Amino acid sequence: xxxxxxxxxxxxxxxxxxxxxxxxxxxxxxxxxxxxxxxxxxxxxxxxxxxxxxxxxxxxxxxxxxxxxxx
Length: 71
Known about the structure:
Elements: E1 15-18, E2 38-41, H1 45-49, E3 64-66
Parallel strand pairs: 1-2, 2-3
């Protein structure tokens, strides 16, 4: 998810699935994704915390990050 405002103002987005291969996240990647409630990540919580810019994957409303998800 590289770039600025990659998923900007997408109110229909409720779930997001991310691969274990994700290495970095751009600024404001999830800006104005007001209905996003669940982020599913294929890696572990430790791997999640090592993603560069992972703090940019915080949607504006309460959400849950699920780890070690197979999809």
